[in-house]
Amino acid sequence: FKVQLFRFVDVLASLHRGTDIVQHLDEYFAGMRNGYTPLIRTGVFLAKLAPWISGQALRWNVSGMARQFIAGRNPNDVTKMLRKRRSQGIGFTVDLLGEAVVSEQEANEYASRCLELLEDLGRETRGWTDPLGKNTELFPVVNLSVKISALYSQMNPADPADAIIHLAPKLRPILRCARDLGAFVNFDMESYAHKNATLELFRTLFTETEFRDWPHVGIVIQAYLRDAENDLLDLLDWGRARGTRFAVRLVKGAYWDFEKIKSRQNGWACPVFLQKPESDLNFELLTRILLENESTITAAFGSHNVRSIAHAQALAEQLGIDRTRFEFQLLYGMAGPVKRALVEMGYRVREYCPVGELLPGMSYLVRRLLENTSNEGFLRAKFSEKVSEDELLRNPADLISQGPNGARHVEVSSDGASLDTPAGDTYENAPLVNFVYEQNQDRMREALAHVRTQLGQKYPLVINGERVWTEKTIASINPSSPEDVVGHVAEAGIPEAERAVKAARDAFEKWSRTSFETRCRLLERAADIMHHRRFELSALEVFEVGKAWAEADGDIREAMDFCRFYAHEMRLIGRPRLTQHVLGEESYQHYWPRGVALIIAPWNFPMAILCGMTTAALVTGNTVIMKPAEQSAVIGAMLMEIFEEAGVPPGVLNYLPGKGSVMGAHLVDHKDVDLIAFTGSREVGLRIWESAGKTRGGQRELKRVICEMGGKNAVIIDADADLDEAIVDTIYSAFGYQGQKCSACSRLIILEEIYPRAIERLLNAAASLRVGNPEEPGITVGPVIDGTAHKRILEYIDIGKNESCLAFQRADVPQKGFFIPPTIFTNVSPKTRIACEEIFGPVLSVMKARDLDEAFEIANSTEFALTAGFFSRSPANIERAKAEIVAGNVYVNRSCTGAVVGRHPFGGFKMSGGGTKAGGADYLLQFVVPRVVTENITRHGFAPETTPLYRDEFLGPR
Fold this sequence. Notes:
This protein is an alpha/beta fold. It contains 31 helices and 32 strands.
């Protein structure tokens, strides 16, 4: 019930009609099964009778709930509240609420609002004095909390220097205004991804001559972070060197759920303590550091937990610190009795007062409701569950006992994996590199510098384990700097193709009889080698195919995942398995490899897709001819090198770059090639599909074709969607890696009701993207792959100008390199070329739909069916999308790119492919033929009572 309630509160701001409000009320609550079910059903039924009345009543009630936690809509509202608090001896810090910032226009608006608020507060509070009358120089009356992420829309953890370059000029006017008014400015801390940049920004600004001697500045430290102590100690060292006081607001942290979810999804070590007693204990440790360094830091303790408050009081008294030299900060609308008690005891109390429109501030409200209702929260324990004072004041260290090897173990139930899960029966993805950490940023820079020294080398073919040089070579160039040759790769012709087929055919018998466990270990060794060379391989992708840092790392991670996932899956299908338990008979199904596999891979995921198709063929016992794309042949050479180091036998894997129209076509038609795995364009894919269907003289097998082609993928934004998320994810889906993903969003369908606001935010967000050389960290849009693609995409843009309305085109793109400006067309008809044909570049077509029926019709109107996205907060509409959108991968409330091996098996149908799913449980079955061996085990009327479920492998094919 709680989750549904919070989701309903979250969506309410986007619902403007009473009928919509009641409809969502019905969708969220009518189907619930709990003790309140009859009451809920009755309430929903009554609401439906007069939705225009009940809907507005619901909105009014939720607004009333928001008013409990939000101090006011504007400075006038806030001033009335501040006067009341002043009479109660309570100070304030004001925080501006609003939508998440998705563009620089919105960031600039936030900066302007901060300035206006400061000036209004300075004017309204002129003449106000400190309620305690002591140490007033430390605590200005006006106190503003600033959200750093709201001042720059393009903050990237990999590039804190860029964040500082853009944030500092926006902050300086705010700081000057505050200093002139005698006000205080505090830097809020939000998600962990921006923590390091925020800390560095704080140190940079307040080391500048202009602000170096200004003491009325502060920053937040979050006690739930594992590295909070190190951050505080670093700040302390900086503060001593600066020679001027500054403040630290110590809080527990408000993004615990988000941080835990994000770290688990990415395979990262969780940055937050996983249980509340650990955060409470750390809060007390940090409290001691703050108070013991009172001469440098002015401490503000942000907590409602009476144990945390009492600990700070007792420690300050023990250290002889006057109670007016630090303060307690509590949230507006919460813990009123605690505030009053602190004031009566003579302590400084300041309220954290959010200011903004009530309903758009719902994300803040939901966080406050979560805090009030948390199973481990202090307020719930005190006021709802009536826990004893002794229990409330219990030392958090008492809740933490010593586990094995002296490790701390929290005596609270865990939400980890089930104990019933068999060991080794699960597969885990490799973690992405977390560029939040400076050491990872440094390793990537070092790798880029090293790889640059290796550019221009020559790479041979590898046939039957031998290096083969040819007269012709393929020059792989850097799309960001076309005069830079990444490498010269030997170009295979038809004679080399024949040698490769013979080598693969000769190696097949022995490889097919090699145990599947041996083949699995080969893949796992290759994954280990990739892991050790991860930054080097990522850097090579930056140079050869123009991928940004995170995109390149994601590709290497996916390659490692393919190796380990297919090894895991092969172990599940490798042993002959009993089909049924039948007395007197054994019938086992198992799989044989098909033969010689030709792997034809694209350049856009140069390591992942090439590796994925290759490893699937190898682990199932096929021998392989590996043909990388010409544009990414050096990365292909690296993959060959990795497998040789891992121990692949000669002839089992052959590296054969060359012209697809010559050597590739010859191999597709070859009678001794049994299987073709292709990922690429529709044009080439259909040609392969047609050619492989012809049987040629001497051919022994029907060719198996695994064909994955392109898409014309649509994202739909529903009328009640969270635009903060929808805009950011759509921009990433459309323009990440320059739109050069088969899964990229190339059509955006927006419901008419929200079209004006959505398109305004979309265009501003696109205008804010960072475009440039992907060697720089934090770049979102780099170059397209080569001159041919550059010319083709520009031609499509010209077509779009004639067919539709050019709403946005970036002007300032680098002239050197194959850069295409991010481009958005509006008023696009679903039947136009730019709405139907795959462009494979940073070009987005936007369409308006009257209702959801029309939106689904437009989305499903193309010949492709690869990916699709749907943004909505209507449970009923989400279910419709899941059932009605025609695509191989449908993503709800997230980007439509970024499939993860094993988690999101990937592939489409219609003209997007043959329906296979790379990274899925059934993918390996495309590379094998099934056999069933049945034996009558009855002898003279007698038969064994039991038959094993598995048996050892049968010998491989002759």
